[in-house]
């Protein structure tokens, strides 16, 4: 029999009727039974083993199917990158000032050809030595210049070296060479050489190599053939030691040998002269660097004999100061 709740069991301000109480009881029973039924279903097969045939069928069903061949796949619906530019993309012609390759002053009248870096002709001038030399109370000048023009594989090279004393050109050596790249760091050279000195001028056919040897030694080796059966050989090498990024110590050595004596130009047969120098330069920029240094020069063999006969020394040490620049 339904009995109404007493005053102490009632919710303040609300009275529970019989239908409401039955609804609450039914809802509570349903919520409590849900997890229990789920647990029972989850552990339903733990108490017994399945027959072998059923287990094999389950294993076969669980194995993944091999992937389909690439040719059988349909890529028709795939979308590649690209498409329209975003609304805020930069206009490619915004910084061209109205100039294009199809209209205006930059119009190309014929088919445009792609030109690579080694197809451009460039020029270069280097004054490796432009200095004053002081020895035995006398001051002389000396220069060692080089200019080239052409491409990476073929160039025209002009070399000039000489000494100035008393405001006059005392002796000089000038070469005009065709330079051809024969390896990654080496050029083969062929051309003409013209000498002036105390005697008659001499002309030579020149051929040699110039390049960068291992350990960064710059090497120049040239052989010469002149009129009257004259031959000559000139070898030079130098190295740049970077004490800092701007302070550079440069040792150098050079030797010359001749196959035939030329007394009129004070040259003897065999090893004729050797010079070695040490120069310290400071590069204010890569293109401009003053330097100071010292150079030793000696004559040997028959060339030394000719110098002694004329009362000239066979050994000489000079203090040098000059500037190295290029453009």
TrEMBL record:
**Record's keyword terms, sorted:** Signal
Transit peptide as UniProt keyword: no
GO-annotated biological processes: intracellular copper ion homeostasis
Cleaved signal peptide residues: 1-38
A Pfam family that this protein carries is CopB
**Gene Ontology cellular component terms for the protein in this record:** cell outer membrane
Protein's UniProt keywords contain Cytoplasm: no
Which InterPro entries does this one have? Cu-R_B_prcur
Q: Where is the composition biased (Low complexity)?
A: 40-63
- Residue ranges for the region (Disordered) are 40-100
Q: Which GO terms describe its molecular function?
A: copper ion binding
**Protein name listed in UniProt:** Copper resistance protein B
Source organism: Rubrivivax albus
Q: What is the lineage of its organism?
A: Bacteria, Pseudomonadati, Pseudomonadota, Betaproteobacteria, Burkholderiales
């Amino acid at each position: 029999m339904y009995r109404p709740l007493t005053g102490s069991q009632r919710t303040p301000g609300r009275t529970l009727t019989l239908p409401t109480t039955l609804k609450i009881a039914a809802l509570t029973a349903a919520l409590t039974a849900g997890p229990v039924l789920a647990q029972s279903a989850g552990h339903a097969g733990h108490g017994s083993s399945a027959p072998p045939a059923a287990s094999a069928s389950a294993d076969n069903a669980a194995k993944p199917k091999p992937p389909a061949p690439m040719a059988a796949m349909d890529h028709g619906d795939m979308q590649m990158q690209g498409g329209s530019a975003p609304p805020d993309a930069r206009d490619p012609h915004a910084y061209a000032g109205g100039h294009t390759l199809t209209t205006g002053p930059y119009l190309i009248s014929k088919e445009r050809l792609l030109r690579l870096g080694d197809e451009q002709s460039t020029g270069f001038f280097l004054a490796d030595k432009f200095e004053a030399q002081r020895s035995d109370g006398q001051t002389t000048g000396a220069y060692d210049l080089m200019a080239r023009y052409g491409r990476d594989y073929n160039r025209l090279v002009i070399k000039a070296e000489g000494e100035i004393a008393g405001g006059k050109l005392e002796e000089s050596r000038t070469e005009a060479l065709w330079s051809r790249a024969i390896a990654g760091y080496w050029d083969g050279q062929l051309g003409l050489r013209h000498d002036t000195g105390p005697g008659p001028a001499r002309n030579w056919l020149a051929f040699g190599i110039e390049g960068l040897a291992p350990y960064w030694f710059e090497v120049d080796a040239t052989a010469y053939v002149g009129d009257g059966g004259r031959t000559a050989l000139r070898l030079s090498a130098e190295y740049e030691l970077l004490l800092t990024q701007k302070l550079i110590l440069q040792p150098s050595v050079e030797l010359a040998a001749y196959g035939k004596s030329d007394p009129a130009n004070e040259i003897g047969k065999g090893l004729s002269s050797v010079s070695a120098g040490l120069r310290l330069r400071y590069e204010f920029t890569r293109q401009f660097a003053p330097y100071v240094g010292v150079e030793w020069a000696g004559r040997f063999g028959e060339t030394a004999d000719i110098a002694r006969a004329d009362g000239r020394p066979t050994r000489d040490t000079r203090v040098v100061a000059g500037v190295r620049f290029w453009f």
